[in-house]
Amino acid sequence: MTIQLSHYLLLSAVLFSIGVAGVLTRKNLIVIFMALELMMNAVNLSFVALARYMGDSAGQVIVFFVICVAAAEVAVGLAILIALWRHKGSMHTDALAVMKW
Amino acid sequence: MDSYAAQIVGILPEILLIVTAIFAILLDLLSKKEERSWVATISLVGFIGSGIVSVFLWNRVGFVFSGMVAADNFTAVFRILFCFIGAITVLVSPEYLRERKIRLGEYYPILLITVFAMMVMVSAADLLLFFLGLETMSIALYVLACLDRRDSRSTEAALKYFILGAFSTAFLLYGIALIYAQTGSTSYAEIMTALIVLPLEVVTVAGVGLLLIGFAFKVAAVPFHFWSPDVYQGAPTPITAFMSVGPKAAAFVALIRVFTISLESLADIWTGAVFVIAVLTMTLGNVVALRQQNIKRMLAYSSIAHAGYLLVGIVAGGPRAIAATSFYLVAYALMNLGAFTVAMLMNRRGEGDYQLDDYRGAGFAHPLLGVTMAIFMFSLAGIPPTAGFFGKLYLFSAAVEKGYILLVVIAVLNSAVAAYYYLRIIVLMYMTRAEHEMAAVPSFGGYTLTLVVTSVLVLLIGSLPGGLLNLLLAALP
Q1: In the prediction, which pLDDT does B278 show?
Q2: A34-39 contacts: CB < 8 A, separation 24 or more?
Q3: Residue B23's closest CA among B46, B54, B51?
Q4: Which of A88, B85, B158, B441 could form a disulfide with A95, with the two C-beta atoms 3.0–4.6 Å apart?
Q5: Chain A contact for B160, CB < 8 A?
């Protein structure tokens, strides 16, 4: 059996779903960050596979942009997390419950 | 638009903002402490300059950079609006920052970068460029929301904003990937032509759905609104005012460009979904706003409800509805900035209080605040002769023209509910007695100027709405 486009896209969809499930169910903020990165990278996989399949380099260029953006995003995210750690001394989502409704 | 210089002219307002931001960062680093107040002045000059350049670009340029950037009149309108919002935010910030002892030179440069990114979002004619603009804006906003580091609520708000923002971005990106898979392009125009001939497939529908989820998060539409009340309450108030109008308008303009233009051939599929989201958004926003005791949270839920009204324009589609949506965005920006400025001024009692009870008897104690707040509340409630009334009128009549009677009936009923909590503030201000002594309100030129300018513009647009509407109709893409 050869590996076809559909296999890549399926893998990408599965990874994305694992990422979504991780963000929604996990309680540790670091693990949530990891799940967010997984979602982004799942999409990157789709882009690369599609670009290769269509013979269009635009898809691969998009991946570079997405990687840069994700790196910038996580840098800010971790900085915010450190600020939260200084206030609450916790990395748990329960630390985020001062404001509700 | 062949020559390189002409292309550069097309993005001159953006370039000006970025240059100002870099200059402001350097100035903050290299100058002495007492000279740093210049950073605010320079940012203000940057916003005004960029706005003036945008005015001059009216009717001058079209698509530049191989069709990546749409520097058309529609973009120009929102560039001007964003520069106005940025300038107002700069005007209300210095006093607030001084009082909270937030001495950060980054504040103004990051604000400039956020407005720059909003401009990129509205001028994008390609999903990739739109994505970059959206992310630049979001990342800058996470930082701005977190700026009051000593207040744990600010940090908490920023983290919630970050997690849900990144989550929604991933959905949006997946939507872009699926649309790219179907059409082989990320350009709005090419997607539009490709979708007309392509047979409808599950992948396309999934792509449109994911894009819609991403957008719904960004404009805080139900059921993707959880982040907004917490973020609005926790973030520093000038930033909340900015966030509630600027990024929301940018996201709506991008939504208009993507959905009512390039995905128009799929309108049958997404109109139903947007219809349901619009109804849920305005109903939940208004009902929950009724029982809020904190003015920032009340305005947050009111902002959710307004997103619902704006979605009515997206459902209706067509030039009149798009012009009406843009009109509403302008009106909403003016009245909400004003309302948040009053909220900022009224809150003098300790850290982050913002209780509605503070407004008891305030109308007589602070005449300017009372009168302007009354104007903003009338406008938000949609009572003539204010900009908010004509915004709703144009929006709902455009929807009726297209036959969405049920949607308009629900929207009008919602406006009636909303009138209760807006008018309650006026009742508190003028018809109740203060329970304790009024706190002193700082006199600062920026605040007064903001209140006067926004309230005069709300009334002016409310008296002569035709001019703005015709301008927007002429600017449509």
Answers
A1: 94
A2: A36/A74, A36/B163, A36/B166, A36/B167, A36/B170, A37/A70, A37/A74, A39/A15, A39/B167, A39/B170, A39/B174
A3: B46
A4: A88
A5: yes
Give the structural domain span for A23. 10-90
For residue B444, the 8-state DSSP code is -
Q: Which helix (H) or strand (E) holds B70?
A: strand B69-70
Which CATH number is A37's domain given?
Answer: 1.10.287.3510
Least Cα separation, residue A46 to chain B (angstroms):
7
Composition of chain B by helix, strand, coil, percent to 5? 80, 0, 20
Packed helices B295-316 and B237-255: angle between N→C axes, nearest 10 degrees: 10
pLDDT computed for residue B243 by the predictor: 93
Domain layout of chain B by residue ranges: 4-475
Nearest CA-CA partner of B131 in B93, B68, B176, B100: B176
Please provide residue B387's backbone torsions phi and psi, each rounded to the nearest 5 degrees: -60, -35
pLDDT bucket at B54, cuts 50 / 70 / 90: very high
Question: Nearest residue of A to residue B134 by CA position?
Answer: A69
**What span, in angstroms and rounded, lies between the C-alpha atoms of B437 and A59?**
63
ipTM for the complex?
A: 0.94
Instruction: Extract the tokens encoding B242.
Output: 């900015």
Confidence grade of residue B407 (pLDDT, cut at 50, 70, 90): very high
Q: Tell whether B223 lies on the interface with A, counting CB pairs under 8 A.
A: no
Q: What are phi and psi of B125, to 5 degrees?
A: -120, 25
The pLDDT score that the predictor gives to residue B1 is 47
Residues of A with CB under 8 A from a CB of B: 9, 12, 16, 19, 23, 29, 32, 36, 39-40, 42-43, 46-47, 50, 54, 56, 58-59, 61-62, 65-66, 69, 72-73, 76-77, 79-81, 83-84, 87-88, 95-96, 98-101
In a domain, A4, yes or no: no
CA distance B315 to B312: 5
pLDDT of residue A99: 64
Comparison of pLDDT for B139 and B153, the residue scoring more: B139
Closest CA to B14 of B114, B97, B107: B114
What is the predicted pLDDT for the residue at A101?
44
Cα radius of gyration (chain B): 21
Judging by beta carbons within 10 Å of its beta carbon (0-12, 13-18, 19+), is residue B353 exposed, middle or buried?
Answer: middle
What would the mean pLDDT of B455-468 be, rounded to a whole number?
91
DSSP state of B256: I
Q: Which helix (H) or strand (E) holds B456?
A: helix B445-463
**Which residues contact residue A54 at a Cβ distance below 8 angstroms, ignoring those fewer than 6 apart?**
B184
Query: Nearest CA of chain B to the CA of A65: how many Å?
Result: 8
Q: Is residue A97 part of a domain?
A: no
Task: Report the number of distinct structural domains present in chain A.
Answer: 1
pLDDT at A71 over 80: yes
- Alpha-carbon distance of B145 to B152, in angstroms, equals 11
Q: Give the CA-trace dihedral at B431, B437, B439, B445, to 10 degrees.
A: 60
A3-44 pLDDT per residue, tens: 888 899 999 999 999 999 999 998 889 999 999 999 999 999
Residue A101 belongs to some domain of the structure: no
**Which candidate, A72, A90, A71, places its Cα nearest to that of A81?**
A90
